[in-house]
């Protein structure tokens, strides 16, 4: 038939080869998972790991975060000596933790310490999703609780950057209880008038979102971050309900009243500085009362 | 075309005539400056006359003027470092109410207010400044936060009322308003409320339990809109003008009734004529109010607030006991 001659239909499909998929050399170039643009990793890092073309916020490691946020040379780390045990004798658990320790050069999935942001002293805890997906076990809970206690002793604000898949399954119920431990520490700190700022980054889910991540006097999030309690697949499979596309994104949470603001990484330091400034300021001479 | 108010028509016509004459002088070789001066003097007199004798209904029109400055207009002019906080942490973020932290002449404060839109699109987003329960719950969240950090609270009131709708009822509009009245009564920090536009009923009062409540000269504050009152009292919403005259809804009346503390003067012709200038008038009163309240301790603030509301109401203590028993 004449029609067949003009058919645009391809007779066969092309399957991209495994090799083609990975043809971007690791390290030198990075491909944005959102817009697929390939860019120099160096350029991306310089732009705070925010995609140059679409603004996608790539995950940031804890040391990177601290380097770009705190005033140079002010950071003093806490509790590098705490290490995970294997309380449930979970097969392969310690090996996996050791692997991540080797890979990240961190002792656990959170880095805690003190420093200053544009001169304002803070105690800060930054989670790192490269370490066991930022999951919270005994060490993570303990490090965070101790950091909060330090903030309390020093009467300085506490800032936490969350990035976590949730509780660490390999430590079972002990992980669950870290939610209570960290929340209890925050309660004491808050009663004392302490300022708590939570910045949720991609992803913040499960037991972490259901404890300290949501307990800030100010809850912020980075654009596009996945934040939620139960995962999308779990919800879809249990209730068989179709979920909106932006479900559990930072923007979705803002619309539903859970966040004070969604803040781009480029603006974050300025926003934090302003909030810290307002909280530290006493109004000056004009307002002095006797 | 600028939005004209009914009572301003004679002024508008006169202004038009003056500008025509000026135009004429510019292009032809005829000198009309005498006539222009005369007309300008007449305009001045007419303006004084009209603006000095505004009826309550005229003021309702000014309060509803589409260009009347909103909460955000004043925040921009009175505060620095404003950072808006969103959400009630429960259900949603109601853009009919804005709130956040800021500095007022260097002093950290929390500022909250109803927010109307400037155009149709923004009005839809902000629901014409008519809040849902989540708006009031956001406001309360921010007030509690202010209390924790010992910051004074400043509320701008500007709403036709809490939104009457199905969703609002489902989520507990009454409870949300009631909770705010209850909690505001107990706040341990100074609270200053300023009615800047329409103060519509419970929806306005939910941001309005303060140590001081001030009102702009041409704003209104009432138990219901004049239209609503006319519909209830006389079953005819078109009698709104009559309702406005009888219901005592202007700043002057409310000052006399002891409902408000101070009437803040407005720029002649209404706040929309010069927002910067209007902000200065507010600034004077606000600064003075905060200076008076800041030295008070928490118990004193709560007691002062209670006394203020306890005094409002009118009744007779008669000798006679009326009873059916």
UniProtKB/TrEMBL annotation, chain A:
Binds 1 zinc ion per subunit. Pathway: Lipid metabolism; malonyl-CoA biosynthesis; malonyl-CoA from acetyl-CoA: step 1/1. It is an enzyme of class 2 (transferase). Its main location: cytoplasm. The keyword Chaperone does not apply. A zinc finger (C4-type) spans 32-54. The gene is accD. Residues 28-290 form the CoA carboxyltransferase N-terminal domain. GO terms for cellular component: acetyl-CoA carboxylase complex. SUPFAM superfamilies: ClpP/crotonase. Its cofactor is Zn(2+). Signal peptide: none annotated. Component of the acetyl coenzyme A carboxylase (ACC) complex. Biotin carboxylase (BC) catalyzes the carboxylation of biotin on its carrier protein (BCCP) and then the CO(2) group is transferred by the transcarboxylase to acetyl-CoA to form malonyl-CoA. This is Acetyl-coenzyme A carboxylase carboxyl transferase subunit beta. It is found in: Cytoplasm. GO terms for biological process: fatty acid biosynthetic process; malonyl-CoA biosynthetic process. Keywords: ATP-binding, Cytoplasm, Fatty acid biosynthesis, Fatty acid metabolism, Ligase, Lipid biosynthesis, Lipid metabolism, Metal-binding, Nucleotide-binding, Transferase, Zinc, Zinc-finger. The keyword Zinc applies. It comes from Anoxybacillus tengchongensis. Its EC number is 2.1.3.15.
Automatic annotation (TrEMBL), chain B:
Residues 35-292 form the CoA carboxyltransferase C-terminal domain. It comes from the Bacteria. Pfam families: ACCA. Gene3D superfamilies: 2-enoyl-CoA Hydratase, Chain A, domain 1. PROSITE patterns: COA_CT_CTER (PS50989). InterPro entries: Acetyl_CoA_COase_a_su, ClpP/crotonase-like_dom_sf, COA_CT_C. Pathway: Lipid metabolism; malonyl-CoA biosynthesis; malonyl-CoA from acetyl-CoA: step 1/1. It is an enzyme of class 2 (transferase). The keyword Lipid biosynthesis applies. Keywords: ATP-binding, Cytoplasm, Fatty acid biosynthesis, Fatty acid metabolism, Ligase, Lipid biosynthesis, Lipid metabolism, Nucleotide-binding, Transferase. Acetyl-CoA carboxylase is a heterohexamer composed of biotin carboxyl carrier protein (AccB), biotin carboxylase (AccC) and two subunits each of ACCase subunit alpha (AccA) and ACCase subunit beta (AccD). HAMAP family: AcetylCoA_CT_alpha. This is Acetyl-coenzyme A carboxylase carboxyl transferase subunit alpha. It comes from Anoxybacillus tengchongensis.
